[in-house]
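tool=predict chain=A
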Amino acid sequence: MTPNDFSTIRDLLRYAVTRFNGAKLFFGHGSDNAFDEAAYLILHTLGLPLDKLTPFLDARLLPEETAAVLKVIERRAADRVPAAYLTNEAWLGNYRFYVDERVIVPRSFIAELIPERFTPWVDDPDAIGNILELCTGSGCLPIMLADAFPNAQVDAVDISPDALAVARRNVDDYELQDRIKLIESDLYAEVPQKKYDLIVTNPPYVNSTSMGKLPPEYRCEPQLALAGGSDGMDLVRRIVAGAAERLTENGLLIVEIGNERPFAEAAFADLELTWLSTSAGDDMVFLLTADQLQR
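tool=predict ok
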């Protein structure tokens, strides 16, 4: 294919959908089908509004514009690079974040719960003073938490200095330097000795069997941020074990574990996990109270 084979965005969109479907791409980093992903990549590459495809469908393109779009389409189809790495952006709700290959592409069911401020479990959101967010990656969740809990200071932790460099860029973009502290730490090891009203985490939780079956798109991401050991619970066990001494008397621990509910219930059989409802059902995020953990 050459740029001369295409005249309009409509031509490129049709080609991209066919190319993506033919390549049997996996869609799990923002869109769930070839059409939406193709439209997003084309509009982004051309610097057009992401929510206005129709007015531009029959716009004629310059050869260099067509060439740029074809390059992106081919990288997505041939190299299986996630769209977010091609555009250096990812969205959670209305929040845009910078991303690159140093972090996994942001995706979290906790992000659905933050705007609701964890109702009804948090009685007074304005009284939340300190939040600890573990395994922060790109810094997306602490930014959303700082927004939802305006009186809170947020300590955001990751073991990867590369991930924290990306998180720093996002914290700076949202001008939250005064409210979000980034900490390089293996979970609690370097965390200040203070009590937190909330501990929130979306840690690596993919079990070893599932790791071996991941689509190529997921293998482009840092495996450190995905792999959770034989049952996916290696880090989750450490997070739960250390939470009691870090929480205030009425504090809450909120943990995302994806599709690993059976492993989580086996790992914490002595605890009554409360499962929070998300768009994917009641299997993705669990909650424990300080009282449960301290008992």
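Residues 63-78 form the longest helix (16 residues). The chain is about 35% helix and 20% strand.
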